[in-house]
Amino acid sequence: MEKSRDGKIEAELLDVNGLAAMLSMSRTSLYKIRTTDASFPEPAFKKPRRWTRTQIINWIDKKSHMDADVKKMSSVLGK
Fold it and tell me: Is 31 a residue whose pLDDT tops 90?
């Protein structure tokens, strides 16, 4: 989070380039995830497209918990 000139805390906004850099992937790979993964968050702002860092961190956390749950179920089911 960053503070604006008036001292208010603002969410850090990421454009497609910033988002791809944050996720260590190309814009093409990011596009594929955005268009195929229904859990990927919608932009906080549509035009220009911007996501908040918090949205993306929450999405990553949710995905990692989902992956852990799938691994647990696989081990329980013996797969």
Answer: yes
